[in-house]
Amino acid sequence: MQVLLINGSNHANGCTYTALRQVADVLEAEGISTEIVQLGAAPVRDCIACGGCTGKGRCVFTDDCVNGIIEKAEKADGFVFGTPVYYAHSSGRLLSVLDRAFYAGGAAFAHKPGFAVASARRAGTTASLDAVMKHFTINQMPVVSSTYWNMVHGNTPEEVLQDEEGLQTMRNAARNMTWLLKCIAAGKEQGILAPEAERGKRTNFIR
Question: Which end of the chain is more exposed for a tag (fewer CB within 10 A), N or C?
């Protein structure tokens, strides 16, 4: 089993990475392989709702990391998306990546468990978690819970390491992820497969 962790921070080894590393360490100790993907500081296009991805499983824009992430997602069994809080909300870079990856390659994420992690000096964490986790709930993904909201506080990695409850929350989320992945695998062995969703009904409120 493999979990893909995406670091939406511009800083490869900053506060968000510090939180994700706590998660990855627990997963690896439980025998689950991990990969932390760093989005970096290169430009990332926003989704323009062109519809060009329909039926292709890939975004029409090929000059950034999104299609590579979809390819990794197809092989992954679970996901953790980490976002810094720069201005009271989640990383615009991460949201652009997720919007396009889920729009174009939603099948690679469906029915696979995931959770979000937010890192902030002070405020904006709950709004950030809400924005990121909407990608899970529209795509039939089990949302992994923990013992508090998945956030850490600190202005530097060293300060994040002092947030003992925040780090504890990361580790507990990782343990719950491990448990859920093993439950899903056991279910598959017993012939319990993901349900088929109904499609085709759309309600437009302006007629």
Answer: C
DSSP 141: P
Residue whose C-alpha is closest to residue 80's, from 5, 173, 170, 179: 5
Contacts of 13 (CB under 8 A, 6+ apart): 157
Task: At 79, give phi and psi (nearest 5°).
Answer: -140, 145
Say which DSSP state 159 is in.
H
Instruction: Bin 173: left if φ > 0, else alpha if -120 < ψ < 50, else beta.
Output: alpha
b/e sequence 184-199, b meaning 16+ C-beta within 10 Å: beeeeeeeeeeeeeee
pLDDT of res. 207: 76
- Report helix angle 164-189 to 15-29, nearest 10: 40
117-165 residue pLDDT tens? 999 999 999 999 999 999 999 999 999 999 999 999 999 999 999 999 9
